[in-house]
Every structure is written in structure tokens, then in C-alpha cells.
Amino acid sequence: MDAPDPHRDDDRILIALDSCPSTQDVVREQALQGAPAGTVCTAEHQTAGRGRRGRTWTETPGTALMFSYLARPARPPAELGPLSLVVGISLAETLPLGPRLRWPNDLVLGDRKLGGILVELATPPDAAPFAVIGVGINANLTAEQLPPTDRLPATSLLVEGGAPVDRTALRERLLGALDRDLAAFDRDGFGAFAARWAALDQLAGRELELRLPDGVVAGRCGGADGDGRLLVGGRAYAAGEVERVLG
Ligand code: BTN
Fold it and tell me: Which of 69, 193, 57, 203 is nearest to 137 (CA)?
């Protein structure tokens, strides 16, 4: 891996690497050394990129938009459940082609996955909690480069839009949106985002199956509640995996 070479980019520490195992680990290390909120690591390639629930995140070098962002939330860990939904809203509203959100944090175009979010919360014993927010967007992948998936099929901005995007310019816009929206979440909580979530929610009103640690529940999705929990058949779930969308 390149030696991390942090430099200030306007008001932000940005570590830009050709290759690393995972940008999550670079930012986590920076955080433990006291780096400020908004510190970012981006890479052209990851050799051990990870996704939610122990999945791997793979890409072809130089095609995806990938970064990890350090958040130092003002709210206590117990109130951070909706953090990944806030990140999703921020990204979906800023990305081209108008992607929508599949709870908790898949970015989708139609029923295809454009990108994902991985929030890793750390509670070091001798320092304030922090969150490393990982973002992976299938930006300039050709149809042949789309990764195989075990759930939603993948797509990319290139495949859907027909032209490559400027990943650096797009990253800057996404980071600016995250700065603003995470500050608003600190200040106002998820209640301030509920209407924006509803406007982007791909699941509300559809019949689905949600996998829980002890089984599967099925029912009509009522969107997300004021704490960012998924409503299925009138009950709220803070965690789980949407397995099948039936309607
Ligand atoms: C998911 O869809 O499950 C989340 C994918 C998150 C991938 C990004 S790429 C940048 C950052 N580094 C990682 O190892 N993972 C996240």
C-alpha cells in the first residue's frame, strides 16, 4: 500500500491512495491519532474492500468512486442508528441519475445496486466515539466490469447514463453534501430528514421479506419511522436484511 500522505485540501485532510486493503482502516487509524471530523481517504483500488454483513466489496481499479469519511457525531452511540440513512439521503440527492434508497443503505437505480454505504462505529475506551463512513459507488464500470452479487444485481453510472463521470468532481460534491447533512443530523436529529427519506424510499408500500437473526418477517413496508427503523407489517425493525421484495 502507498504510505499515507495526508494533505489539506481546502479545509479537509484528504489521503488519496492508488491502492490499499481498505480505506476504512486508513481513516480509522487517522481517527485514533486524533484526526478531525471530515478527514477522508480515497483509493483507486482496494485489495480487501468490505461491505455490510461481512461481504466483500470488489471493483476494477480506476473505475469506482470509493472513500471513507471520518464523522465525530455529537449524538451518543444509542442515537446513531439512522446515521447511515442520513448518509444515503445525502448521497442520493447529490448523485446524477436520481438513485433511490433501499433500507438501510443501498443506492439503487431501478432494482439494481449502484452503490453502498458501510458505517463502522468505534467506541475507544479512552477517546470519544467516532464513525468511519465508507462509500462505494459503481461510477465508471462497464457492463463487463460489474461485480457479481448474491442479492441485487449491480449497475453503474456509466452503464445507466451512457457516459463516464468525473469521479474527482463528483467526490467533492458528495463530500460537501455529507459535511452539511451530518452537521444537520448532529443539530436536529433524524426527524429533520424523515420527509427526504420518504421521497427517496424505494421500499415503502411494497410487500417484502425481512431476514432477522431468528427468522423472516413478511409484510407491507410502511417506510422508516422517526428513528430510522424499517416498518414491516406495522412493526418497527432497527436491523435486518431485506431479502425479497415481492410487489
Ligand atoms: C455495502 O454495499 O455493503 C457497503 C459497501 C461499502 C464499500 C466502501 S468502498 C470504500 C470503503 N472501504 C471499504 O472497504 N468499504 C467501503
Answer: 57
- Interval between CA 9 and ligand 1 midpoint (Å): 23
- The DSSP string of 66-81 is EEEEEE--SS-GGG-T
Cα–ligand 1 centroid distance for 234 (angstroms)? 31
Which grid coordinates belong to 175? 463530500
Q: Where are the alpha helices (DSSP H) in the chain?
A: 23-32, 83-94, 157-161, 167-188, 194-200
Length of the chain: 247
Between CA 56 and CA 149 the distance in angstroms is 10
What digits encode the pLDDT tens for the residues 2-48?
456 565 666 899 999 999 999 999 999 999 999 999 999 999 999 99
Lining ligand 1 with CB less than 6 A are: 22-24, 46, 49-52, 55, 57, 66-68, 116-118, 134-136
Domain ranges of the chain: 7-200, 207-245
Q: Assess whether the previous peptide bond of 104 is cis (omega < 30° from 0).
A: yes
CATH code matching the domain that covers 7-200, chosen among 3.30.160.40, 3.40.50.1820, 3.30.930.10, 3.40.630.30? 3.30.930.10
User: What are 158's three cell numbers?
Assistant: 456509466
pTM above 0.90, yes or no: yes
Q: Extract the C-alpha cell encoding 212.
A: 432477522
